[in-house]
Amino acid sequence: MPMMSGKMMSSLLAAMLMVVVPRFNGVNAADKPHILFIVADDLGWNDVVWRDPTMHTPTLSRMARQGILLNSYYVQPLCSPSRSAFMSGYFPFHTGLQHGVIMPEQKAYLPANLTTLPQSLKDLGYATHAVGKWHLGFCNWKYTPTFRGFDSFLGYYNAAEDYYTHMAGRGYDFRQDTAVDKDDAGKYSAYTFAERAQVLIGQHNTSQPLFLYLAFQSVHGPLEVPAVYENVFCGHIQNETRRTKCGMVAILDEAIANITGHLEDTGLIDNMLIVFTTDNGGPVWDAGNNWPLRGAKATMWEGGTRGTAFVYSKNLFQNKGTVHKGMMHAVDWFPTMMTAAGGSPPPGIDGVSQWESLTTGSPSPRSEFVYNMDAIEDGQKPAFHAAIRSGDWKLMQGPAGMGPAGIPYNGWYPVPGVDGEQEEFDESAVEDPGPDDYQLFNIKEDPTEHHDVKDKYPDVLAKMKARLAEWRQTMVPANFPENDPAANPEHYGGTWTPGWC
Question: What residues form the membrane-spanning segments (predicted)?
Fold first, then answer.
C-alpha cells in the first residue's frame, strides 16, 4: 500500500481529532457541563433531615447546604405527569398525561412527536444514559427509553414494583436496554441502580459531555428496605411504617453518596451540574410526609406539588449555599439544562430557562404555572378540576385530587412521632369542593393554605378565573384508555413487554 503524503496524514489526523473531541456550536464538547439528573420517587416535603430531624440524609443535606436549595419549586401531583414534564418541557395537560399515572395495560405514553431532553442533549454531543424508573409508556418500543434519546437503559417501565423481585403486579419488569434482565432479580433496586451509575461513570470518555438520568425507585411503595438501614439509622422512630420509610430514605442517601464519591474519584464532578428532585409530594397513606404543607401526593395542594429539590455544582454557581426563593416548575429543567449545555430547547414548550437565575441569584423568569387541569370523570372526581398559580395567588377549581380508596386528602398530616403516636386528621373535617367551587389562596402569606380568601379579594378572583379559562382553551384530551388484554405479561413469558400497540 502506498505511503500517505504529509498533507493526507495531517488531514486524516485532523478528522480523527474531530471525532475524538467533537465541537458543537463552536463550543468544545469537553467544556459543556456533565449533568446528573436525580429523581427520587414519592419523597415528601418533610422526608429529609433539614425539615424532619428524625430522618437520615447526610449526603443530601450536605449537597443542599453547599448547593442551592429550591424553596418554591413545583412538580406534578403524580409520577408519570412529572416525568413527562421533565422529559418534554410541557405541562401534562398539553401532552395528554394529566390524568393519573400510566398503568401497565394502558396504551398511554409520552407522545412520540415530542422531542425529549436526551434527544436534544444528544444533538449537542452528549452521551445519554437512563437508570431506574421510566413510567412514560411501553406499549410500543418507540415509547421506551432507548428509542427516546437514551444510549442505554437499565431499569423498569412501570411503577410500584417489588424492590427485590422486580415484579410489577403479575409481570416481571426489569430491562437492560431492550433485553429482559434477570441477573439483577433478588437485588434491592437502590444497590443495582447505584452500581450501574458507577459503571457508566467509570466507563465514560471524559472528553464527551455526559447526561445521566438517575430515576430511583426509592422511596415509592411498597415499603421495603434491608433491616440494617432501619436499625442503624432509624431505630429511634417507634412508628413502624415511618421507621421503614426512614430506612428507605437512608439507603437512597447512601446510594447517592456512593455515586458522588465515584464522580469525585473520576474528576467528572469538577464540571458537573447535579439536579436532585422529587417527582411529587409524599403519600401520607404510605408513611410519606409533607408537614406543614397541606395535602398529599395525588392532590394539587402544596403538599402534593411543592417539591423537595436542590441543585449542586462545585464550580458553576456564584451563589452556592443559598436558598432560591424564585418560582420554578418541573417543565423548566429541559430549557435550563439546554442553556447550561450551550443549546436551545425546542420552540413552544412550556418551560423557561432558570439557568441565569440559578447561577447568579437573579429573579426567576417564571411568574405563573398550572398545577394541573383534568377533564375526565373518574368515580367521585368531577369532569373538570384545575389549579393555577400567578404571582403569590393560587386559584383552585373543584376538588384538589384523590388518593387511594377515593379519599381526598384535603388536610394537614403531622409527622408520626418518635414515640409511635401519630395525630390523625379527620378527613370529614374539611368538605371536598364541588366542580363549580373555587378557592383562592395567597401562598406567600399563607403557604399552608389555611385561609380561602376569595370573598376578601373578588377582583383577584375574577382575574384568576379569567386566566384559568385562557389556560383551559389550550388543554388537550387526556390519554387514559381502558386496559388492553393484549398487554398481559402471560403473552410474553411473564414479563411486561412492548409490542401490543
Answer: none
Q: In sequence order, what are the residues at sequence separation of 6 or more whose Cβ sits closer than 8 angstroms to the Cβ of residue 486? A: 500, 501
pLDDT tens track for 13-50: 333 333 333 333 334 556 899 999 999 999 999 999 99
For the whole model, what pTM was predicted? 0.93
pLDDT digits (tens, 9 = 90+) for 324-355: 999 999 999 999 999 999 999 999 999 999 99
- For residues 300 and 358, membership in a common domain is answered with yes
Whether 108 is in a domain gets the answer: yes
The answer on 404 and 316 residing in a single domain is no
178-183 average pLDDT score: 98
Which position has the grid cell 458522588? 260
Is 52 in contact with 288 (CB distance < 8 Å)? no
Residues spanned by the domain of 233: 30-366+479-492
52 and 154 together in one domain: yes
Q: Is residue 3 domain-resident?
A: no
Q: Express each pLDDT in 461-480 by its tens digit.
A: 999 999 999 999 999 999 99
Q: For 421-440, how does the pLDDT look when each residue is reduced to its tens digit (9 = 90+)?
A: 667 788 888 888 888 899 99
Same domain, 342 and 376: no
More reliable by pLDDT, 4 or 390: 390
Long-range contacts, 250-253 (Cβ 8 Å, 24+): 250/55, 250/56, 250/57, 250/225, 251/188, 251/190, 251/218, 251/225, 251/226, 252/40, 252/43, 252/190, 252/216, 252/218, 252/219, 253/56, 253/57, 253/58, 253/59, 253/60
255 and 176 assigned to the same domain: yes
Could you tell me the CA-to-CA distances from 33 to 269, 337, 414 in Å, in that order?
9, 9, 40
Catalytically active residues, by annotation: 79, 135
Question: In Å, how far from its chain's centre is CA 204?
Answer: 24
